[in-house]
Amino acid sequence: MADTVNALPHFWPVLQALPTPVLYKEHSRSRILANAAALALFNSESNSSPGDSSLSLADIQQLPLYNADNAKRYDLLHNPLLMALSGSEMQLSLLVGDSAAPDSRRCYQLHSKLVALSFTLHSSVLISLLPAAGHAQVISGQLPATDIAELEEALAFDKLISLISTELINVQDQQLDQHIHDALAAVGEFCHSDRSYVFQFTPDYTEMSNTHEWVRQGISSHQAQLQHIPKAALPYFFSKMAQDYVFAVSDVSKLPAEAAAEQQEFVAEDIQSVLCCAMRSDEELLGFVGCDMVSRRRDWTSTDLRRMKLVGDMLAKTLQNVRYRQSLQQMQQQLLAANNELTQLANQDGLTGIANRRQFDHCLNNELKRCSRNGLPLGLILLDIDRFKSYNDHYGHQAGDAALKQLATVLQQQVKRQGELAARYGGEEFAIILPGSNLSACQQVANNIRQQLAQLNISHQHSDIKSYLTVSLGYCSSIPSIQDDGLQLLKRVDAALYQAKKSGRDQACPAQ
Ligand SMILES: Nc1nc2c(ncn2[C@@H]2O[C@H](COP(=O)(O)OP(=O)(O)OP(=O)(O)O)[C@@H](O)[C@H]2O)c(=O)[nH]1
């Protein structure tokens, strides 16, 4: 993944070195950073690899946290770390430690705060655990009645889903995979399944691929083999999914005869029970989310179904959002490219391809202001082909067009520096803007143009000037004042061009 995604906040080394366990979670990221003291505290329960300073939501859920007042283990619904990570500011005592050895549990004071350390729009959460003096008195709690337990479990699941969906609402494209993985891990842990996964269908519903997977420790993964599975390989599954949007099998050995291919696949993956729910958005079947039981069989209940459907709906909306966003971005890029093309067309002369009058006016205005601000001279050359009417008359309009293009190429070669522009001013008249050029530099450019045109030797046997095509040029240069406008400058350079014509053509005259 890109460095920017994994990059640690700049203040992290400070928190990392603190002797106090600290957790830090940025609003827009699923990752929960844990400093060395926190990793040491949670080490035995965390799945994090050595050297990794982050924990997942699933890691946090597994931590053995106990209420300091009654020594009861916190369930998911009341887990203070999860509550703090979802944005509740709090301060409370809790016990952390071994479930088998109550005496080894240590008491911590949990402080959580919403902070804006990373200058993002959204707050981040900073949690610290200060060791508290002594153990709280352990009170043996009573087991809750079954219906309360069920209610609590249902509430806990809803809380978990709301936590995950909050993460998914703001998910950035490059974080999507991590978030889906976190969601699958949380669902897998919560539903006590051995695998949980997401498959996506191709838009024509002829193939499916296992795009995301979570597996319990010790359970084998089959994701690599479950890519591009054609409809023909698992016809029963594909038709069930398209028809019912659910595939729930409590005992795979009891699948009907027409599901022989599916049964063979389930046996190969050691699956005893399987539950899959469609991910649908706007009636489109995007894929499905599912879970497997490997270590034991399980009779799926309506609650299991409801939960899996909830997760499927949530992931479908997320995937669809990402797709919308991607197609919107694509459309924006196409619009931008079309816009650029239009702007270019609007500023280009159709015949010669150099700047047109519109771009010339715009550029002259800008350069006048820029040179006036910086006290720089602004040079301007105006030129006109000599005896072009007779050229057209004798050689034809098409040959005239070709000559205009050749001249434009010569002019374009003169402009190299930033702000310089060669343009077709109109008809057979051209202009060059030369910011920063004094009168002698302009004269130099004008002479270059005459020389290069002479070298091209575009035959004009009907000219009374030379036997080839020539141009007359007027040029001027001055440091513009703030009141100067382009019109005054053009009048001066036009008068110089008129002078060049009057003096016999094929020459360059400076403005007075
Ligand atoms: N082939 C072609 N000719 C053009 C184009 N635009 C203008 N012209 C021609 O340019 C010629 C300009 O002629 P005039 O303004 O009479 O000037 P001239 O014959 O060049 O003579 P002087 O400028 O006095 O040397 C006209 O015949 C126009 O038709 C164009 O896009 N293509």
Q: Could you give the order of strands across the largest sheet?
A: 3-2-1-7-6-5-4
Number of strands: 18
CATH topology of the largest domain, anyone? Beta-Lactamase
* CATH architecture label name of the largest domain: 2-Layer Sandwich
Name of the CATH homologous superfamily of the largest domain? GAF domain
Sheet bearing the most strands, described? 7 strands, antiparallel
Structural class: alpha+beta
CATH class category of the largest domain:
Alpha Beta
Share in helix: 40-55%
> What sort of overall outline do the alpha carbons produce when their principal axes are compared?
elongated
Low-confidence stretches: 1-5, 117-122, 135-146
Distinct small-molecule ligands in the complex: guanosine-5'-triphosphate
C-alpha-based Rg, rounded: 38 Å
Approximately how much beta-strand content do the residues carry? 15-25%
Q: Helical element count?
A: 15
N-to-C CA distance: 66 Å
Mean pLDDT, to the nearest integer, reads: 86
Number of domains: 3
Describe the protein's architecture and organization.
With 512 residues, the protein is α+β, with helices and mostly antiparallel strands. The protein has three domains: 1-142, Beta-Lactamase (2-Layer Sandwich); 146-345, GAF domain (Beta-Lactamase); 357-510, Reverse transcriptase/Diguanylate cyclase domain (Alpha-Beta Plaits, 2-Layer Sandwich). Helix content is 41%, strand content 21%. It is built from 15 helices and 18 strands. The strands form three sheets. The chain has a seven-stranded antiparallel β-sheet. Strands 10-9-8-13-12-11 form a six-stranded antiparallel β-sheet. Strand 15 (421-426) and strand 16 form a beta hairpin. The chain starts with a helix and ends with a strand. The site of guanosine-5'-triphosphate has 16 residues, from strand 14, helix 12 and helix 13.
